[in-house]
Fold:
Amino acid sequence: MAPPARAVGSAPLASRREPTDLPESVLNTISQARAPSTRRLYALKWSVFASWCATRGADPVSCDISLILSFLQELLDNGRAPSTLKVYVAAISASHTLIGGQGVGKNDLIVRFLKGSRRLHPPRPLTVPTWDLPTVLRALKGPPFEPLLSADLRSLTLKTALLLALASVKRVGDLQALSVSPSCLEFGPNDARVVLKPRHGYVPKVLSTLFRAQVISLSALPSSERDPELSLLCPVRALKIYIERSALFRRSEQLFVCFGDRTKGSSVSKHRLSKWIVEAISLAYSSLGLQCPTRVRAHSTRGVASSWAWYSGVSIKDICAAACWASPSTFTRFYNLDVPALQARVLSA
Structure:
């Protein structure tokens, strides 16, 4: 079930950055410029900084830039990643008074500090998948996921969410934005394909992404003599069955809805959808009597799916278009994993 709605936090004195003579309704509209999840994250980071300043008798809203740098250095010394420091800077900048007419995030010393932290601690993205795609796909062809028509609602939901994540190479937030409304969902003749669109008004994580005007178009996987069970992994088939089953209790136009008793049929959060994808991978391993690897993340589906596609001969242009990456360097630097497809092909030849 989706977790209960939480109050949207904000930095205690964030409004001091805005003119005090503005009407309350205007200030409220300005506060909505950031997504609720971003405001919650900023509130959490700001509270850490505010508490740190309180122990030193400093005002977190107007303290000197040297104190902010000392705070960031302490975080870095304690093992925080440079990317985490960047979030702290953004949260502090949202509430701190301007320094020399600039926000904290644009201060020259802060900019150089963040750049130096990245040089000292360069990111080390994973190069080996945390879980094995062929193993998971093999499990999805058997119980408790199949037969899909008679599978329990939980297994049906988990399998559909995982197949859609793998086939679309989209972020969890993009998957949550999908809708079953007629303007956003359309199956082709004989269910040979499906077209999905984000709900109206959806703002993607990266504003420059083409996903705002892009659709997800998936073709059905037919059975073949080489692999008669291939159709069991068809995302179009899973979506069709899931939508028909969920229509009996659906209370939201969001594609994925909760299947628990208390909130059954209501919209699902991004956090819960992420857990479903991880649960699907874990259930796949356990159904084969295997121990699920640790550190499995829902976001890993983007790297696993795109890496297997790359090593299977899909062009980098098509991969970037599907994943909404503006440049192949994004795939190369952060998502390209060492999958055994290429090695197996060479050895088998």
Remarks:
- The mean pLDDT is 86.
- The longest helix spans residues 36-54.
